[in-house]
Structures are given as structure tokens and as C-alpha cells.
Design a protein that fits this description.
Membrane-bound Lytic Murein Transglycosylase D, Chain A; three-stranded antiparallel beta sheet; 3 helices; alpha+beta; two-stranded antiparallel ribbon
């Protein structure tokens, strides 16, 4: 039985994530705004700059936005970014 109010996505280790329709709509709007140009939110804390990855981002686009390299960002986030070709929406990464 399908319920249009919820979307269930399977995550690593079969963990389920349940989102309300308003969360899904807001996420899709964020993704449309990004247009693949690394338009996710960024902030500075204690002299370090962070970025929240949105769907459609690539590490090279993020690196270009912050005038750095993919490898420099990977070095700042060794526990998250093990392969510069694999990033996930929702990750909050240090970029500078």
C-alpha cells in the first residue's frame, strides 16, 4: 500500500530514513536551485569554512567555488571523503 505522505529510502546497512512530503519538497527545491553549481549553504566557524553538500554537487565544483582543490578538501575530511569521486548530499564538509 502506497502512502503519498512518506517516502522511504534505504540507507547503508538497511537503515531506513523516513521523510515527510514537506521535507521532500524542500529538498527538491534546494536541489533545483543548486543546478549542479555547488550552491549549497556554507558558513565559517572558528576560522574554518564549511559547506553542506546538496544533490547534484561534485567535489570539483565545490573546490572551484572555494578556490581550492579536491585533494585539499579530501585532506580536511579524511573520515568522510575516502574517494574524491564519491560524495553524498547532506554531508557537512570543511572546505577551508
Amino acid at each position: 500500500m502506497n502512502n503519498p505522505v512518506y517516502e522511504i529510502n534505504m540507507k547503508n546497512n538497511f537503515k531506513k530514513e523516513i521523510k515527510t512530503m514537506s521535507e521532500i519538497i524542500n529538498e527538491k527545491e534546494l536541489n533545483e536551485v543548486s543546478g549542479g553549481t555547488a550552491a549549497g549553504p556554507s558558513w565559517t566557524q572558528n576560522g574554518m569554512t564549511f559547506y553542506r553538500i546538496v544533490f547534484g554537487d561534485t567535489l570539483s565544483e565545490i573546490a572551484a567555488r572555494f578556490h581550492t582543490s579536491c585533494y585539499a578538501i579530501q585532506a580536511l575530511n579524511p573520515t568522510l571523503i575516502k574517494d574524491i569521486n564519491v560524495i553524498k548530499a547532506g554531508w557537512e564538509i570543511r572546505v577551508l
